[in-house]
Amino acid sequence: MRRRVCAAGGCQWFIAKPDARLRSGIGAYRGFRSTAGLPQERLVVPSGRVSLLIGFGGEMRLGRTGRRASGTPAPAPVHTSVVSGLHTRARVLGHQGDLHGVELSLAPWAAYRLLGASLGELADTVTDPADVLGGRVRDLGAALEAAPGWRERFALLDEALLRWTAQAEPSHEPSPAVLEAWRLLDRTGGALPIGELAARTGWSLRHLENRFREQIGLTPKRLARILRLNRAIRLLDTGATATDVAVACGFYDQAHLSREFTAMTSMPPGRFLAARGEASAWLAG
């Protein structure tokens, strides 16, 4: 287990790998505790993963506060725990300064198996995990909160996720063809042409799109855009120029790269990197 403290202070992360039997579909467990005492926000970019966040205390606000027709503030939706399907545009998460919980990042095919629901219905949505997983996620949240420390919490997560996987309905086992198509897109950072992807499955493009939408959450083309954006962000983080990144990631040119950034994050690459660097780090983006 690793412990990290936010550069700005007031927040800690506790990070550990799940049980080896879960690692193909579930990323590192990320426990977090924020005691900053001041409202914080973070822009969360599309990642091509399903996020399950179980909160022990504090509330998260989804989106910035808007305005009603009368001009009075319209509060953003508030949750203690959330499950977020694949999303195609960045969203804002905020809290009032005190937050405690754990986040899991799931490959979409693993989420399809665990959640027992069509991922197409969860795409571009954020909902209470109990709406999908029922009372068992509330029981798990209560057990995690009561545990004496993070090692014990991560052990409880292993136990619960292994049990839920074993209890998954056979009808929610991802199709081998969909699973291979997802792996090809993920491995190539979204660079594989969709026509070639369909040919490798032996399915028509329409059939692949329908099965992909059900078991992954989006069509292959929309997922490829997200994976390509994430690869571009990683390369830009290393100091690569926008021109070099555009070539490496398969964009037509730097202008195309900028348009994709703006479409999915509402800002061009340079502004996005600057804004992310200034953002609070209470939760992974």
UniProtKB/TrEMBL annotation:
Listed Gene3D superfamilies: Homeodomain-like
PROSITE patterns linked: HTH_ARAC_FAMILY_2
Nucleus recorded as keyword: no
Top-rank taxon: Bacteria
Q: SMART domains per the record?
A: HTH_ARAC (SM00342)
Cite the entry's keywords alphabetically. DNA-binding, Transcription, Transcription regulation
**What's a Pfam family this protein contains?**
HTH_18
Concerning SUPFAM superfamilies, the annotation shows: Homeodomain-like (SSF46689)
The UniProt record lists the HTH araC/xylS-type domain at: 185-275
- Protein name according to UniProt: Helix-turn-helix domain-containing protein
